[in-house]
């Protein structure tokens, strides 16, 4: 298995390490050619406007969008979730627009309102894992084909639509490998 991590900006190294710790190959994706022969791609956290700009500047936005539409498994964490969304409630910008979700950016407030909590997410793992929210978005609306994976206080913070996974939080910043294991299994389904 070879998993790419979009490496234009944001929290890249932690995703690479988690994937490698699970015994799969993890490579940085910085240009269109890097998209070849991937079994899955992770869009990390960071700042979605910056990442969207860099995706366009490097000419990766459309090739990446096509590959996702053709079934390449993708996981967006935090800003990555915003890149995937068909609609952003509080921004005029849109990026990949592949996943049938509407998201609210910075939905929990400013950087100072970042927080960590701990839950067992039945669809993903048997154990409680830490969920780290950093100026996080959440999902305010989902299309029919979207499976809600987890909600906290009625807010959707993890969801899946076929080959696309989105989480508001950052599993790569905790020591738990469970979410990355779940994504690798998703990639195997599409192999
Ligand atoms: N607030 C950022 C944005 O709107 C996302 C934050 C993150 O990825 N940790 O792009």
TrEMBL record:
PROSITE patterns: GATASE_TYPE_1, PDXT_SNO_1, PDXT_SNO_2. HAMAP family: PdxT. Its EC number is 4.3.3.6, 3.5.1.2. The active site is at residues 78, 170, 172. InterPro entries: Class_I_gatase-like, PdxT/SNO, PdxT/SNO_CS. GO terms for biological process: L-glutamine catabolic process; pyridoxal phosphate biosynthetic process; pyridoxine metabolic process. L-glutamine binds at residues 46-48, 105, 134-135. Keywords: Glutamine amidotransferase, Hydrolase, Lyase, Pyridoxal phosphate. The lineage of its organism: Bacteria, Bacillati, Bacillota, Clostridia, Eubacteriales. In the presence of PdxS, forms a dodecamer of heterodimers. Only shows activity in the heterodimer. GO terms for molecular function: glutaminase activity; pyridoxal 5'-phosphate synthase (glutamine hydrolysing) activity. This is Pyridoxal 5'-phosphate synthase subunit PdxT. Signal peptide: none annotated. It comes from the Bacteria. One of its GO terms (cellular component) is glutaminase complex. Catalyzes the hydrolysis of glutamine to glutamate and ammonia as part of the biosynthesis of pyridoxal 5'-phosphate. The resulting ammonia molecule is channeled to the active site of PdxS. It holds the Pfam family SNO. Belongs to the glutaminase PdxT/SNO family. It catalyses: aldehydo-D-ribose 5-phosphate + D-glyceraldehyde 3-phosphate + L-glutamine = pyridoxal 5'-phosphate + L-glutamate + phosphate + 3 H2O + H(+); L-glutamine + H2O = L-glutamate + NH4(+). Pathway: Cofactor biosynthesis; pyridoxal 5'-phosphate biosynthesis.
């Amino acid at each position: 298995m070879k998993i790419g991590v979009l490496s234009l900006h944001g929290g890249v190294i932690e995703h690479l390490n988690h994937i490698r710790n699970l015994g799969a190959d993890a490579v940085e994706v910085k240009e269109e050619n890097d998209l070849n022969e991937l079994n899955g791609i992770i869009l990390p956290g960071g700042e979605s406007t910056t990442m969207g700009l860099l995706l366009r500047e490097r000419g990766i936005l459309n090739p990446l969008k096509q590959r996702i539409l053709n079934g390449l498994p993708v996981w967006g964490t935090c800003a990555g979730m915003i890149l995937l969304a068909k609609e952003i409630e509080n921004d005029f910008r849109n990026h990949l627009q592949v996943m049938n979700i509407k998201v609210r950016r910075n939905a929990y407030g400013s950087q100072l309102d970042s927080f960590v909590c701990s839950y067992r997410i039945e669809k993903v793992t048997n154990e409680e894992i830490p969920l780290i929210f950093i100026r996080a978005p959440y999902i305010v609306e989902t299309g029919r084909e979207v499976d809600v994976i987890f909600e906290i206080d009625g807010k959707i913070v993890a969801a899946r639509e076929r080959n696309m996974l989105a989480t508001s939080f950052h599993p790569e910043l905790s020591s738990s490998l469970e979410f990355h294991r779940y994504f690798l299994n998703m990639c195997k389904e599409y192999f």
